[in-house]
Amino acid sequence: LDRGRLVYAGAPAAMSARMRGRVYVCASPQGVRSDLDFWVREKDTCDVLAQGSRVRLLMAADLSDATRAELVRRKAELVEPRLEDAYMDMLGGTGHRPSPFAGMRAAELAADGAPAIRAVGLVKKFGAFTAANDISFDVQPGQIFGLLGPNGAGKSTTFRMLCGLLRPTAGECFVAGVNLLNAGSTARAKLGYMAQGFSLYPDISAGANIRIMSDLYGLDPATRKERTELLTDVLELGPFLHQKAGLLPLGHKRRLALVCATLHSPPVLFLDEPTSGVDARTRREFWKHINAMTGTGVAVLVTTHFMEEAEYCDQIALIYRGSVITRGTPEELKNACPRKAGEDPGLEEAFIACIEEYDRLHPL
Q1: Of 18, 50, 185, 234, whose CB is crowded by the most CB atoms within 10 A?
Q2: Residue 96 and residue 73: Cα distance in Å, rounded?
Q3: How far apart are CA 93 and CA 70, in angstroms?
Q4: Which pTM was predicted?
Q5: Rounded to an integer, what distance in angstroms lies between the CA atom of residue 320 and that of residue 352?
């Protein structure tokens, strides 16, 4: 179903089979982010996804000669279609409108070149229970850093400490070069935060929420007006600005939260399960905007349960039993996963294999 109409009814296999001959995977020697931007703008592209150091492309049925030549030049390989490929095609693909965040300059980071986000030996205890133990990592400007882990592993606790929402038992955390423990309000002014649950005011309008957030961040009226018009137009929120925020559809609530988190062009963005509960097309839109922000130097810390989303990360830390048990790029994690001949394990298999190996070496 899409916008009140039936677009398909039948067997899943028959639905995905329609895309055979239209799905490609190609390497990204110049970097996945630049290739994502290139293919999103290409008129023959229906859908594009990051897959570690490669991109997955769903192309139009009738390709131009120029697009065919580009696929050959990039040594693109045909692969079997998935159900989601067909779903995206039936809904009209991802669209070719560029993200407005690509033209918005992020706020300045610390002058000394410090990491945008830094965790140093973070520990959090609740009584006798240790939720996070000696967590350390850095996130550089323009980098997407993913925190992965099963429920209850400690990733949300770590995330909340770095946002300034939870005080650590031990250790230090820095945002844009500012110590959260010593100057929390200064640090929080330099970050944007999007909670997993809807954390805005539900009983007032979407537009009123935006005005409140812009006042809290100290935006002048002209800047607020300019950014609100730009972001709500591209995120298709304009017709909903007078509706109560709590009555918006889930996807529009997430879009409103993204607008409110980025109005002040922060150099650091914290995203806690940013696309939880939304459809595949909305997930694509969100990640197009997130990638555009990193191109301006914004550092992003994200938690997610979608392995597809984790492919967009430059670095991933897998947290389990309160500790970081492995860290690396998506490709490094997948390459370290044991495999049989002919297998090509994805992040999900690598995720499970790392946890099983840790359990074997550290039995309870």
Answers
A1: 50
A2: 22
A3: 20
A4: 0.88
A5: 11
